[in-house]
Amino acid sequence: MTRRIQFGVFFQGVNFGTIWSHDESGSQYDFESFRRIAQTAERGLFSAFFLGEGLRLREHFGRVHELDIAGRPDAQTQLAALAAVTERIGLVATQNTTYNDPYDLARRLSSLDLLSEGRAGWNVVTTDNAWTGENFRRGGYLDHADRYRRAAQVVAAAQRLWDADAGTPVTVDGDLVSLSGPAPLPASPQGRPVLFQAGDSDEGREFAASTADVIFSAHPGLDDAASFAADVRGRLARHGRRRDALKFFPGQQFILAPTDAEAEEKAEWVTHAQVSPQTALRYLEPIWGRDLSDHDPDGPLPRFDPTVAEVDGRRGSAFQGRRAKETADEWRGLADAEGLSIREFVIRHSGRRTIVGGFGTVADLLVRYVDAGAVDGFNVSPYLVPSGLDDIVDGLVPELQERGVYPDAYPGTTLRENLGLPTLSSAASAASAA
Ligand SMILES: Cc1cc2nc3c(=O)[nH]c(=O)nc-3n(C[C@H](O)[C@H](O)[C@H](O)COP(=O)(O)O)c2cc1C
Fold first, then answer.
1. Closest C-alpha residue for ligand 1 atom 20
2. What is the residue with the minimal CA distance to atom 23 of ligand 1?
3. Best mutation site among 14, 123, 311, 317 for ligand 1, i.e. most ligand atoms within 8 A of its Cβ?
4. Which ligand 1 atom lies nearest to the CA of residue 96?
5. d(CA 338, CA 13)
6. Which of 417, 414, 424, 410 is nearest to 118 (CA)?
7. pLDDT tier at 430 (50, 70, 90 boundaries)?
8. How far is the CA of 99 from the centre of ligand 1 (A)?
9. Ordered domains of the chain (ranges, CATH)
């Protein structure tokens, strides 16, 4: 395995992780924000610029989440615009398989792949069902297991359309996906778009092991990342795939500075700007199942128990399926042990996936990740847009290059080459040899 770490950037339109109220904050939907961050990432030799998908505005107790009102523009449209102002960075669109139709999706992703000369990726998600589905004529229409069955059929159909010569008839006849028509477009320089996957359940991991090139995971801590990778790699053989066939890119936030002390100081203002008193209360509300605006964010966590048994899917995938009382007890225990207020607790809890440190310290830590084989890269969420990658590109990347674990130039021109993925023909022969 190559001893190398890579970065992608995950532009988070809707999340309190990005500070939108600072003097340096740009807009979350102006093209200028996207252009500057993508070009900075490319200057730092990032492999991919990555966008989520949200087909419905998020709600919180019946009110639309205020950050969502500015919206999350359609990923493929934004990436097509970015293809014109970048040359090497991969352009990855999250697109769900539950509400999108495979012919349309395959054609649009092929178009992005052709326009960008082989830089497109598709992050395959099944998405939250009932909540998103109310926006559609179908409504919430598939349970969890069928969402993954449909995902497998949608991706297989897209691959058939991509691998056939343009104009060749393709017929797919599955119980959840059927289509018949000529393959719409020729292959791009990388053959077809790279497949990412995000979804953490047993079915999600199995689907990734059978199909994906890269996993965008929510397991960034060193031990957690290593056990997640071991679990998923253990599934590859039964799909006829080699242990190095799949790359792991957990989501991660970095707060960096020239020295550790300066980074700690920066973390203090970043985390307080991310978690306003109101944000802190909203963080608890899904667990307690009620409006907590009458609570003091500088006081202790609520003493009464949640009014719900389980946190419902509308409250965001991070909380989905959590037992409310168990979670409340755990959080109260953690806060009480250190005498933390609501706001201080939320800062600590929501920031547990952030790496804080001087450039050299963090570079040493990332070398440990590489040596442990735990990750191939990180999908970085900048806390400020558009300047939030500057520290990484100007401070951390040179330290990693000095340690010999970061590329000095893009290895190729396509996303597949830049991620170090096998070309499609050798991937096929490796699969048949395994
Ligand atoms: C790191 C990560 C990022 C995700 N990003 C999105 C997204 O942008 N849009 C979306 O609809 N779902 C997204 N999902 C949710 C997945 O689509 C999936 O619906 C959810 O995780 C449930 O699948 P699971 O039970 O396999 O985890 C993401 C999931 C993970 C783990």
1. 199
2. 199
3. 317
4. 11
5. 33
6. 414
7. very low
8. 14
9. 6-259+355-433 (3.20.20.30), 264-350 (no CATH)
